[in-house]
Specification:
heterotrimer, A mainly alpha (501), B mainly alpha (98), C mainly alpha (492), A: mainly alpha, two-stranded antiparallel sheet, 73% helix, C: 492 residues, 2 strands
């Protein structure tokens, strides 16, 4: 084990949020300033370390932290192009969410506990992103479950406890299936690291039957977090969590961990060719398409704003799985870039939903008449996010849908266009009425529970700026899609490496 | 003399089984403690029997040492069991008088 | 045999706690300070012992210079050293916790001598090199444990521990009869010599098998293997918290250790798949049944006690896998995984019971449904329960996660896939019972002031739980080396 810079950096990225988290647990509840400082130091330090990592990976340097747990069982943190994509997303959004959460929970109780688990949650997400083998992936995947449970249960109301219980039942069962799949695979392959193009190519055709069953186990485990229908039941229930947690669950951590895992398993464990040959991609694409349509339909029927957004997540995350399931580099690009695009768009929407609830007491779509006049900046950010989800150019979501559609055509799967078209129509059907209400209807005489902050803006600064910033990201990701280091260019790099172009 | 050894050892095994049976079947504490002691005595019989090495040779001292140690252990365990039993009886009497 | 400086810890591990027990009996006024000094010294000796085994390999000492057939032999290989280290570190944690737990002078005076005696017996059991000393230590352990368990003096505790004592005695007598049979057949009590002679004399199969049945059955009774577990839950749940921790984490483990020793070192040539399968099936039922009862338990300590029944079951699952795996790296992995599961459970269950005891002291009861406020007022303790609980479930990064990973890997590799189903069912049930407790910690009660409220009581529990999660889960490599050094599992 060598302890040079390249071998330490991935570990340091995980620790940069883990250590502040541990200290935050020990803080007294009143140490508001110290807690804020620790949170921000962790978030900024992680950002700096990730910037170093991006630069290094772009320059072709190899970063790998290996810790031997026991003979043959090694914890591997490895930065390849795919992990960098996810690490960057979680690190940037963590910083923004931390600022938002500090504002959101200003007068709330149990903040040390909250921010402690919040940091653990991000450490686990980054660990998932950097995992270099299935063992490491499974470890961080389970830690993520444990770290998010207290966040979902945070409010302590009976509904929160119930939602958290459902969340846990789903994710722990899924985790066990994933574990069994990973162990089984390990008996066939021995200790192997993730590798572009897959690691199973050398196995004889005799075990292909086993490989299909293992894939089913892995997919079931990952599908729970990725909210693939019918494993999505926990997601709408966990909406009881505070807004920053919902943002984190939906945009960065939990659902993304599942989707990212599916990408890893298909590309770097099975390899697209073997997966396609075994008929696994076909199954995945059917599941993903069904989820896309089902989530959108369910979203239309929800009056609660957060619930509507939750079903929208169910639908949108499956774009990633869909892109993965289509054979061909263009679809891969579409799926991977959506990993980032869905993240920034959905976090914007959730921040805005939190702002409406905190400032005006508005939690349902039917109460949103005229919110645009009372809170123009928030509503503007919401509009950008919503239009992006529908896929209107030049916002990020358009780029994803464009590449997915093109990828479908390239793979000869023209029905993908149909799925995308119907999903787009449905997205419009559940987002446009909100925008219409917000901008064009007259505001009510009084808001359900209005809260006046002492500021010249529509709401507290820590709540207002995060969605505005992420909305700007959504625009930039679309407008500058062809610039170097944009999510699209990075996704292209990953696809080229995967297909050996 | 070999028959004597078998007789003795066989009696030990019989005692063991009898004690075991009594321990499992009888509810009262005192009977259980006595049953355990009988079971133990059975094992000690077996140990004494196997110490025999023919008329000419002196008996093997090791099993004898084991029996002595075993008796000490059995006595102290019985004492503890009786003490706990007595305390239990007291507690029950107290409950009843209340 | 080897240099006396190196073998001194062998003697000290047993002599120091015995000496401590005598001192606290003679000077009851000083019992707390003398007790904690003895605890520190004993733990130090155990660390030295492990270090010596690490450097030199197996240690062997014959006391008093007698010839091996007569003398008392002490023996420490890697397996014994790893367990000794766990037992003594957990023992130290329990001792620190106990200084704050007992306030009534009478209890303080009774606790320390018995606890140190129990500790000496535990160490003696792990180090004894012959069958009869094992019997003596087993009896000493049983007597001290039952007396400690009944310490609160309330009716339930006395009744439960009286039953524990009687059942334990029956187990030891059964074991002793097995020893007598082995001595008849092989003429020696030394573990190593008996092992050689069993391997060399296949014609004595019938006697050996009878002895094995008697000994293993007696020990399974003490190890609370289903269906012989009935005595454990009430005895462990009604004892004072530090005692519950010692009984559940250490004493039961000692009985299992002895089964493993006999199985691997002594009876290996005559154990077959059928016997291993029988024990493992009982273990599987124990896992499901124990976890189910834990889920239904109304009291926190009863939950922990049933969880012990389940966790012991996991250890027995390894027997058929060991039988099916030829010597080599796969078998080394399996033995290390078994040891890892036992060690993790030791730390985790001790931490769990200590934390549960604190919750009970603060709330005045341990009814799970009414614990909300207390759990929230004691964040460090609740955290300890959460950590220990995740080790009991086998979630990463705990040691039992690695253990279960290797267990399932071996089950799939040897074609005994049904154990995978058992392990997953057990883990699911364990998650359910652990999170049933933890969900009480998130209520609407006011925010706790600080993380640690009562350092002397909370830190031991938290430390033990942390070891089970972080240390054993992330750095278990040394166990492989320790096992390689010893003769454990040399069998086939």
């Amino acid at each position: 084990m060598s302890w040079d810079y390249a071998a330490l950096l991935p570990g340091a990225i995980v620790l940069s949020s883990l250590l502040p988290g541990v200290f935050i647990f020990l803080l007294q509840e009143e140490s508001h300033i110290l807690r804020t400082v620790l949170n921000l130091i962790g978030a900024v330090a992680k950002l700096v370390l990730v910037a170093l990592l991006i630069y290094g990976v772009w320059a072709g340097q190899v970063f790998e932290t290996r810790i031997a747990i026991a003979p043959g069982l090694t914890l591997v943190l490895n930065a390849d192009a795919l992990s960098v994509l996810f690490v960057t997303l979680s690190t940037v959004l963590w910083l923004v969410t931390t600022v938002y959460a500090i504002g959101y929970l200003e007068h709330s109780t149990n903040r040390s506990r909250f921010f402690g688990f919040f940091s653990l949650c991000v450490s686990a997400t980054v660990g998932i992103a950097l995992s270099g083998n299935l063992l490491t992936f499974v470890i961080f995947y389970e830690v993520l479950t444990l770290a998010t449970y207290p966040l979902v249960a945070h409010r302590g109301t009976p509904e929160a406890t119930r939602g958290a219980k459902i969340y846990l039942a789903y994710t722990l069962s899924g985790g066990l299936l994933l574990l069994v799949g990973a162990v089984w695979l390990r008996t066939l392959t021995g200790p192997v690291d993730f590798q572009e193009g897959g690691v199973l190519g050398h196995l004889s055709a005799d075990v292909h039957g086993q490989l299909v069953v293992i894939f089913a186990l892995l997919l079931a485990g990952l599908g729970v977090k990725a909210a693939l229908v019918p494993l999505h039941g926990w997601l709408p229930q966990s909406m009881v969590a505070p807004a920053p947690v919902s943002s984190l669950l939906h945009a960065v951590a939990v659902v993304k961990a599942g989707a990212f895992g599916i990408v890893r398993v298909v590309y770097d464990v099975y390899g697209v060719e073997l997966a396609s040959q075994l008929g696994l991609l076909a199954v995945l694409s059917v599941l993903a398409s069904f989820t896309i349509v089902y989530g959108s339909v369910m979203a239309m029927t929800q009056d609660g704003l957060k619930k509507r957004l939750a079903y929208s997540t169910v639908s949108q995350v499956s774009y990633i799985a869909l892109g993965t399931s289509l054979l061909g580099p263009v679809a891969t690009i579409g799926g991977l870039v959506h990993l980032v695009h869905q993240g920034i768009m959905k976090i914007t929407l959730f921040f805005c939903a939190g702002n409406y609830a905190e400032t005006l007491g508005v939690a349902n779509v039917s109460q949103m008449d005229g919110v645009g006049r009372r809170m123009p900046l928030t509503t503007l950010a919401f509009t950008v996010g919503a239009l992006g989800m529908i896929g209107i150019p030049p916002i990020a979501g358009f780029v994803s849908k464009w590449y997915l559609g093109l990828g479908g055509v390239e793979a000869g799967q023209h029905w993908v266009l149909l799925v995308l078209a119907s999903s787009t129509l449905l997205n419009a059907a559940y987002f446009l009425p909100i925008l219409y209400r917000a901008w064009f209807r007259a505001p009510p005489a009084a808001w359900p529970k209005e809260h006046h902050f002492h500021t010249r803006f529509e709401t507290m600064g820590a709540l207002l700026w995060p969605p505005v910033i992420t909305a700007v990201f959504c625009l930039l990701a679309g407008l500058l899609a062809a610039a170097p280091f944009s999510p699209l260019e990075w996704a292209r790099l990953i696809a080229e490496r995967e297909y050996g172009l | 003399m070999l028959t004597a050894q078998f007789l003795y050892g066989g009696a030990g095994l019989a005692l063991f089984v009898l004690g075991l049976w009594s321990f499992l079947v009888h509810e009262p504490l005192l009977r259980k403690i006595i049953a355990l002691n009988i079971t133990g005595a059975g094992v000690f019989h077996v140990l004494i029997a196997i110490a025999y090495r023919g008329d000419a040779a002196p008996p093997d001292p090791v099993p004898h040492a084991l029996v002595l140690t075993g008796i000490v252990v059995a006595v102290s365990a019985t004492a503890l069991a009786l003490m706990l039993g007595a305390r239990l009886q007291d507690a029950e009497d107290e409950d009843r008088s209340r | 045999m080897s240099d006396p400086l190196m073998t001194a810890p062998l003697v000290l591990c047993i002599a120091l706690p015995l000496l401590g027990a005598l001192l606290v009996t003679a000077l009851p006024r000083w019992s707390v300070s003398l007790g904690i000094v003895s605890a520190l010294a004993t733990a130090g000796a155990a660390v030295a012992l492990t270090a010596a085994v690490w450097q030199q390999g197996t240690l062997h000492l014959i006391l008093g210079g007698w010839d091996a057939t007569l003398a008392i032999a002490l023996h420490a290989d890697g397996l014994a050293a790893a367990l000794i280290l766990m037992v003594n570190l957990v023992g130290l944690g329990i001792s620190v916790y106990a200084t704050d737990y007992f306030h009534d002078r009478l209890r303080v005076g009774a606790f320390w001598p018995l606890w140190l005696l129990l500790w000496a017996a535990l160490n003696g059991l792990f180090l004894a090199g012959d069958l009869f000393n094992l019997y003596v230590m087993l009896e000493l352990l049983g007597i001290a444990a039952a007396a400690l368990g009944a310490l609160t003096g309330n009716r339930d505790a006395v009744a439960a521990n009286l039953r524990y004592l009687l059942v334990g005695l029956l187990g030891s007598i059964s074991y002793l009869l097995g020893v007598a049979l082995l001595y008849t057949a092989h003429g020696t009590l030394d573990l190593g010599l008996v092992a050689q002679r069993i391997a060399a004399a296949p014609e004595l199969f019938a006697v050996d098998a009878a002895a094995m049945t008697l000994m293993v059955a007696g020990l399974a009774l003490k190890a609370a293997l289903f269906p012989l577990h009935f005595w454990l839950p009430p005895a462990h749940a009604n004892a004072p918290a530090p005692v519950s921790a010692a009984l559940s984490a250490l004493v039961v483990k000692a009985a299992f250790y002895l089964i493993l020793r006999l199985w691997l070192d002594l009876f290996w040539p005559i154990t077959g798949m059928a016997a291993a399968m029988l024990l493992a099936s009982l273990g599987a039922v124990a896992i499901v049944w124990g976890s189910w009862r834990a889920l239904r338990a109304e009291r926190l300590k009863l939950l922990a006690a049933y969880s012990t029944v389940a966790q012991i079951g996991y250890l027995f699952l390894f027997l058929p896998l060991l039988t099916a795996t030829p010597p080599g790296p796969a078998r080394d992995d399996l033995l290390a995984a078994l040891l890892l599961m036992a060690l993790t459970h030791g730390f985790a269950k001790a931490g769990f019971f200590l934390a549960a005891g604190l919750v009970q002291t603060h709330a005045g009861h341990d009814r799970i449904d009414d614990l909300g406020g207390t759990a929230q007022r004691l964040p460090a303790t609740t955290f300890a329960i959460a950590m220990a609980g995740s080790a009991l479930i086998g979630l990463p990064p705990s040691g039992s996660f690695i253990g279960k990973w290797l267990l399932m890997q071996s089950a799939i590799a040897t074609g005994q896939w049904w154990w995978v189903v058992v392990v997953t069912t057990g883990s699911l049930l364990a998650s359910a019972y652990v999170f049933r407790v933890l969900s009480r910690a998130f209520g609407l009660e006011p925010t706790p002031v600080r993380f640690v409220t009562d350092a002397r009581a909370e830190v031991p529990a938290l430390t033990l739980a942390l070891v089970s999660v972080a240390v054993l889960g992330l750095a278990s490599g040394p166990l492989w080396r320790l096992l390689e050094l010893g003769s454990a599992g040399g069998g086939a």
